[in-house]
Specification:
It is a multi-pass membrane protein. The protein is mainly α. It has one domain: ABC transporter involved in vitamin B12 uptake, BtuC (Orthogonal Bundle), CATH 1.10.3470. 77% of the residues lie in helices and 2% in strands. The chain has 14 helices and 4 strands. Strands 1-4 form a two-stranded antiparallel ribbon. Strands 2-3 form a two-stranded antiparallel ribbon. Helix 2 packs parallel to helix 13, helix 3 packs antiparallel against helix 11 and helix 3 packs across helix 13. The radius of gyration is 20 Å and the shape is globular.
């Protein structure tokens, strides 16, 4: 009885649309924009989209790393802001550019490690403790910036001006870093363990996988990527406003789920999956600016997309359980 049920499965077309329906809808939106808005497909606008997608890709990858382990990080925005805030404070103390880069990467990594140790130790859903640490990170950042707009040194802008064959560092560096991380995830034992923990933590323990260490590692990599994102973002805008990073965890999550990362853990690819999701997000954001859409409408659309992905994922998983 069970074997015949398994053979039935979901209709291929229905399963395809359940898995890719949201991405198809976004692509249709982009195609329509290309025909209705002449400036949308211009070289300068496409370059702007690519540049914006770089930082989004880093942050989407950061949240994907912990989502792979069936965890979540809602402190990403606070982490990025704290890294940048400490960078401005150290600049006032006379630190040079190289020292600032190292310091910001270390701050981000430490914040990720802290989240990992707490999440792996406490028997609470990680979303709760990362909300708390997010407030802590943002509060500390306010102390370093004194709650005012902080500025980076003029030499800091040189980072965003670096390019290879005309491609800016804000585009190629995130792609290179995340592609190497993708290879690590797909071709190393540790990478497979990260997926295994997210797929079924009980089975992972029975197989002898160090669940505590794997979760801590995922959060630590998450923090390192936040530090790198803070460097690139602050070099682009040359300042650290108090609003930096606000809502970043939501947009990162949206790009990740658009790229096929599962809220249930154990599924998704950093490349090309999450890259495609980050590019889709950056494209839609750019289109809404061109359309001069109400800024408050952004959150409505982003929330609806995430909700749609969650609903489709639940429907697919329930359908498979009934057929099993």
């Amino acid at each position: 009885m069970n074997s015949s049920a398994k053979k039935i499965g979901l209709p291929p077309v229905a399963d395809f649309f359940m898995q890719h329906g949201v991405k198809i809808a976004v692509l249709i939106f982009i195609i329509v924009m290309g025909f209705t808005e002449s400036s949308f497909l211009s070289v300068s606008n496409l370059s702007s989209i690519l540049s914006a997608s770089g930082t989004t890709y880093l942050c989407a990858t950061a949240i994907s790393m912990v989502m792979f382990t069936n965890c979540l990080d809602l402190s990403i925005g606070g982490n990025v802001y704290l890294c940048a805030a400490i960078g401005t404070w150290l600049n006032r103390q006379g630190w040079n550019t190289a020292s600032l880069i190292v310091a910001m990467l270390l701050v981000g990594t430490f914040c990720g490690l802290l989240n990992g140790l707490i999440s792996a130790s406490l028997k609470v859903y990680p979303m709760l403790n990362t909300i708390a640490t997010g407030y802590v990170f943002r509060g500390l950042a306010f102390i370093f910036t004194r709650g005012a707009l902080a500025h980076m040194p003029k030499s800091w802008n040189n980072i965003s001006l670096v390019s290879i064959a005309g491609v800016p560092i804000t585009v190629f560096l995130p792609i290179i870093v995340v592609f190497l991380l993708h290879i690590f995830m797909m071709n190393t034992r540790t990478g497979r363990h990260i997926y295994a923990v997210g797929d079924n933590v009980k089975t992972a323990r029975e197989r002898g996988i160090n669940v505590f260490g794997i979760k801590t590692l995922a959060y630590t990599i998450n923090g390192l990527l936040c530090g790198l994102a803070a460097i690139l973002l602050s070099s682009q805008v040359m300042s650290v406003p108090s609003s930096m990073g606000v809502g970043l965890e939501n947009t990162s999550m949206l790009a990740a789920v658009l790229g096929g990362v599962s809220f249930a853990g154990g599924k998704g690819k950093l490349f090309p999956g999450v890259f495609f999701g980050a590019l889709l997000y950056a494209t839609v954001s750019n289109a809404m600016v061109l359309l001069q859409a109400n800024a408050y409408l952004y959150n409505v659309i982003y929330g609806c997309v995430i909700l749609a992905v969650i609903v489709l994922e639940v429907v697919r998983s329930q359908g498979r359980k009934q057929l099993a």
